[in-house]
Amino acid sequence: MNMLRRRVSRAFRKKSCNVELECLKEWMENNPDLQCKIDDHWLLVFLSSCKYNVERTKAKIEMFYIVRYAMPEIFTHRDPRLPRVQQILNLGLFVPLVNPTAEANYDTVIVRMTFFDPEKIPIQLIMKVDLMIIDVLLTDAATQFKDIEFLIDLKDFSNNYHEQLSPNQLKRLLHYFEDSYPVKVRAVHFINPPPFAMPFLNLFTLFVSEKNRNKIRVYCENEEFDVTQIFPRDALPVELNGTNSSLEEMRAQWKAKVEDYRDWFLEGENQPTPDSNAFWIA
């Protein structure tokens, strides 16, 4: 019953925020430093992530586009048909569950830091494609207003990631994701971390806000862990003792979905962007 009330409440808010939408559109039209085109659909995503607070939404929209300009290695060349993007999509490192439990107000994303050579594939490329998939989750009508819960498998995590991603870069990315991205994180579960990955996880935990720090759970290799204790079995792939589709089937479906959004990605790259000098992190 409580879940039903939450879903009804969210639906009501989405239908009754015309005043907020008009306020945001007027603000964007009168903001000379922000010339990006955002339709009502995308504005609603931002509003929802900020609990329909207009001032918080303005700040998030502004930073969202500033940071995209400041990090071209991640937010340019996002054509799903590019060979390097196709390479990552084919690996299936970042796979949303295709058929989560109907009553759930969140989606689960499985992240697998395996199946590739980190010396040949830069981690920035992986992040580029991962964020493209999140963009689709936020844009698609079936998933746009849901929270996201991450299950991150660190089996075979490589030390090379530390060389590719400095602490400052990690801090920038986490700052961007928390303060600028219209994502509501429900929880983050790290499983199978090798001992040498713990410094990375400690930095990850240090750099996130206290609110999100309380949503992080790390399951060590020597700790008994059953993923079905956290996620419903009918939402999990067969590889994780679930009754859903296989990870390969989910990977193929999400690859096709990202490719369907090709025009949307290309249009986004052609939009004017704010001055990157406004973006600074200590």
How would you portray this structure in words?
The chain has 282 residues and is of the alpha/beta class. 49% of the residues lie in helices and 10% in strands. It contains 13 helices and five strands. The protein has helices spanning 2-15, 18-29, 40-49, 54-70, 72-75, 83-91, 123-139, 160-164, 167-179, 198-207, 210-213, 247-260, 262-269; strands spanning 94-96, 106-112, 147-153, 185-191, 216-219. The protein has a five-stranded mixed beta sheet with strand order 1-2-3-4-5. Helix 6 (83-91) packs across helix 7 (123-139) and helix 6 runs antiparallel to helix 12 (247-260). Mean pLDDT is 82; it is low at 1-12 and 276-282.
Main beta-sheet strand count, sense and barrel state:
5 strands, mixed
What best-fitting shape do the alpha-carbon axes yield? globular
Q: Mind telling me the C-alpha Rg?
A: 19 Å
Q: Residue-averaged pLDDT, rounded?
A: 82
Strand order of the largest sheet: 1-2-3-4-5
Q: What percent of residues adopt helix (DSSP H or I)?
A: 40-55%
Poorly predicted regions are 1-12, 276-282
Q: Can you write the helix and strand succession as a string?
A: HHHHHHEEHEHHEHHEHH
- The total beta strand count reads 5
Classify the beta-strand content into a percent band. 5-15%
**Strand-pairing-aware structural class:** alpha/beta
Report how far the terminal alpha carbons are from each other: 45 Å
Output the number of helix runs. 13
